[in-house]
């Protein structure tokens, strides 16, 4: 057993006297409270890094709970986010997690996205969250539960030939993934502990227990291993509180152990053990470049052994433990504040090879990747932001190939990569790919912009089943979306919105072309201080 190889780097990082990366490039003057992932404030601070208004951060290990970010001296953001209430002197602090109300509308068929606990069915759906968080010295905690509901109106589904709850199970990958096409035929109501946690930050070591959503990887819309596509899962963790200085650069790490639950629409209702390790490194000579690697394992919950708790210590072949579901990725993010540019990429594989030579012979066997960029320009007192990202989860392979057609997130033996019926990774799901392009303008009262998106779903099923059996109807399941989005700041209340028109061709291979209206309204209060003004000194 090689557990010391996992623990030693964390101990080394714990003793490093580290400071937040980028503090050398700017003097930090404001400490900002951040809640959630991909919220308007979270989005604003990522753009601020490109504009030179915030110190560059790795941005590849993120959590959705209450946390703190910083901005640079002399840099004024388009609007002023809520300041952090945490005391620098170690005095106890208690603050409110802002009340957040999110609602969605889909007029024709379900939609999916980075929406956490919510299942966006046809009709109305939504979520409410809020709570409190506190800090006392090295200890901090938050109680931030979530409540979600969905109208879950009827739409045509694929018949599975099963009865009862299993009628709603996934029709394309059988018992290899708990990803129901519809969670029953009634309105839904559910709740969870949400972005709650208890943690200790001593020196540069953080440890605790949490139900927060995690985001692992550099992507804007998708990452391969961990997003907020579904609810957070209960987990214990240990890692760095911030990037640690190891002389040749800065390193941060996170190891976690969690429990995944299955929905009532899956044949096997047992739980699964999820373990993972992610490490990133910023070279001393290129401090705005982040290189990283992550590896996660889904294993049977029963029969605990130390080997099961430290699977990342085993080799990169299936010989160590063939009865698990392994996913791994390599990634980078490179920020160029002087030109307002961020480029990022992630490459991963689903399941280990039986022999090392297979990695050389066929490195693309089960590959997936994310490629993207973000660019900011200045237009008077406004920031103009361009986003572009491509996500590819499915490789086309000859049906006769002896190694089969790998499908990301699926696995037999109750080891699919989901929690409570929602995927943990990219929201486009197994066999999906996506292209996304957007432009936004940031000003004193918020931001406004538009986007175009193309999503192709369940492509593994298409190549293996649909095209061979339906040669006269060779249509992929493809959704085209054109939309507008924005965020307004009104009296300290943050109002995010999105309105889009979509057309889905051959949805679920049912031979229909269906248009749909998709809308989102996200209200958070109190969320901000007074509106700010863009610094034009650059």
What is the global morphology? globular
Fourth CATH level, the homologous superfamily: Capsule assembly protein Wzi
Q: Give the beta-strand count.
A: 27
Label the CATH architecture.
Beta Barrel
The residue ranges in which pLDDT falls below 50 over 5 or more consecutive positions are: 1-23, 529-538
> How would you state the average pLDDT, rounded?
87
Query: Hey, roughly how much beta strand do the residues contain?
Result: 35-45%
Helical stretch tally: 5
Fraction of residues in H or I helices: under 10%
Radius of gyration: 23 Å
CATH class: Mainly Beta
Description:
By secondary structure, the chain is mainly beta. It has a single domain (4-525), classed as Porin (Beta Barrel), CATH 2.40.160. It is 8% helix and 43% strand. The protein has helices at 4-15, 40-50, 306-309, 357-361, 459-469, and strands at residues 28-34, 61-63, 67-72, 93-106, 123-136, 139-143, 146-150, 188-192, 197-202, 205-210, 214-216, 235-240, 244-245, 249-260, 272-283, 289-300, 325-336, 341-350, 367-379, 382-392, 418-419, 422-423, 433-443, 446-457, 477-490, 493-505, 513-525. It has an 18-stranded antiparallel beta barrel. The chain has a two-stranded antiparallel sheet with strand order 1-3. It is globular. It starts with a helix and ends in a 13-residue tail after the last strand.
Write the layout of secondary structure elements.
Blueprint: H1 4-15, E1 28-34, H2 40-50, E2 61-63, E3 67-72, E4 93-106, E5 123-136, E6 139-143, E7 146-150, E8 188-192, E9 197-202, E10 205-210, E11 214-216, E12 235-240, E13 244-245, E14 249-260, E15 272-283, E16 289-300, H3 306-309, E17 325-336, E18 341-350, H4 357-361, E19 367-379, E20 382-392, E21 418-419, E22 422-423, E23 433-443, E24 446-457, H5 459-469, E25 477-490, E26 493-505, E27 513-525
Antiparallel strand pairs: 1-3, 2-11, 4-5, 4-27, 5-6, 5-7, 6-9, 7-8, 9-10, 10-12, 12-14, 13-14, 14-15, 15-16, 16-17, 17-18, 18-19, 19-20, 20-23, 21-22, 23-24, 24-25, 25-26, 26-27
């Amino acid at each position: 057993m090689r557990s010391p190889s996992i623990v030693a780097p964390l101990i080394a990082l714990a003793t490093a006297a580290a400071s937040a990366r980028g503090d050398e490039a700017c003097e930090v003057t404001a400490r900002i409270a951040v809640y959630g992932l991909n919220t308007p404030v979270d989005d604003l601070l990522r753009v601020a890094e490109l504009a030179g208004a915030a110190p560059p951060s790795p941005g590849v290990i993120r959590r959705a709970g209450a946390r703190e970010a910083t901005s640079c001296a002399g840099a004024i953001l388009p609007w002023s986010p809520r300041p952090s209430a945490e005391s620098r002197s170690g005095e106890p602090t208690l603050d409110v997690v802002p009340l957040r109300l999110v609602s969605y509308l889909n007029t024709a068929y379900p939609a999916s996205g980075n929406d956490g606990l919510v299942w966006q069915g046809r009709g109305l759906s939504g979520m409410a969250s809020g709570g409190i968080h506190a800090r006392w010295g090295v200890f901090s905690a938050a109680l931030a539960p979530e409540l979600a509901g969905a109208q879950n109106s009827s739409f045509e589904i694929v018949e599975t030939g099963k009865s009862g709850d299993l009628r709603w199970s996934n029709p394309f990958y059988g018992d290899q993934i708990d990803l129901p096409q519809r969670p029953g035929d009634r309105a839904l109501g559910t709740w969870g502990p949400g972005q709650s946690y208890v943690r200790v930050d001593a020196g540069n070591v953080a440890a605790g227990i949490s139900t927060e959503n995690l985001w692992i990887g550099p992507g804007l819309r998708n990452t391969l291993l961990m997003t907020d596509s579904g609810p957070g899962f209960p987990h214990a963790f240990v890692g760095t509180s911030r990037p640690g200085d190891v002389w040749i650069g800065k390193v941060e790490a996170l190891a976690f152990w969690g429990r995944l639950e299955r929905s009532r629409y899956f044949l096997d209702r047992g739980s699964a053990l999820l373990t993972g390790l992610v490490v990133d490194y910023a070279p001393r000579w290129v401090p705005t470049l982040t290189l990283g690697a992550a590896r996660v394992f889904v294993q049977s919950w029963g029969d605990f052994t130390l080997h099961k708790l430290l699977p990342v210590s085993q080799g990169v072949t299936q010989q160590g433990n063939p009865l698990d579901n392994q996913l791994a990725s390599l990634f980078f993010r490179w920020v160029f504040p002087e030109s307002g540019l961020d480029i990022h990429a992630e490459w991963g594989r689903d399941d280990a090879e039986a022999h090392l030579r297979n990695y050389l012979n066929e490195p693309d066997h089960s590959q997936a990747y994310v490629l993207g960029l973000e660019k900011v320009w200045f237009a008077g007192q406004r920031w103009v932001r361009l986003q572009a990202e491509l996500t590819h989860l499915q490789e086309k392979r000859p049906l006769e190939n002896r190694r089969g057609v790998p499908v990301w997130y699926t696995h037999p033996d109750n080891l699919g990569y989901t929690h409570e019926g929602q995927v943990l990774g990219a929201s486009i799901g197994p066999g999906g790919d996506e292209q996304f392009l957007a432009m936004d303008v940031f000003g004193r009262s918020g931001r406004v912009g538009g986007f175009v998106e193309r999503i192709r779903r369940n492509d593994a099923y298409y190549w293996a089943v649909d095209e061979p059996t339906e040669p006269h109807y060779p249509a992929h399941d493809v959704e085209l979306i054109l939309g507008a989005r924005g965020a307004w700041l009104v009296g300290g209340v943050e109002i995010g919105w999105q309105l889009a028109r979509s057309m889905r061709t051959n949805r679920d291979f049912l031979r229909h072309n269906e248009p749909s209206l998709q809308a989102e309204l996200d209200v958070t209060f109190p969320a901000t201080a007074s509106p700010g003004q863009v610094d034009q000194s650059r």
